[in-house]
Amino acid sequence: MINILQERERQVNCGTEPFRMDCDKHSAAGSVSQRACVFCGSRVVLYPVADALHLVHGPIGCAAYTWDIRGSLSSGPELHRMSFSTDLREMDVIFGGEKRLYGALTDLIGIYRPKAAFVYSTCIVGVIGDDVAAVCKRVGAEQQIPVLAVHSEGFKGTKKDGYQAACSALGELVGTGPTRDIGPRSLNVLGDFNIAGETWAIRRYYERMGLQVVATVTGDGRVDDIRRAHGAALNVVQCSGAMTHLARAMKDKYGIPFLRVSYFGIEDMSKALYDVADHFRDAAMMERARIMVREEVTRILPEIRRLRSGLEGKRAAVYTGGAFKAFSLVRSLRTLGMKTVLAGTQTGNADDYQALRELCDDDTVLVDDTNPLELAKFIQERGVELLIGGVKERPVAYKLGVGFCDHNHERKTCLAGFEGMLNFAREVHATVTSPVWKLIRSSRRETTAAPLDQCGHDCGRCTLPMCCGAPVPPANAVI
Ligand code: SF4
Question: Of 262, 297, 332, which residue sits at a domain end?
Answer without folding.
Answer: 297
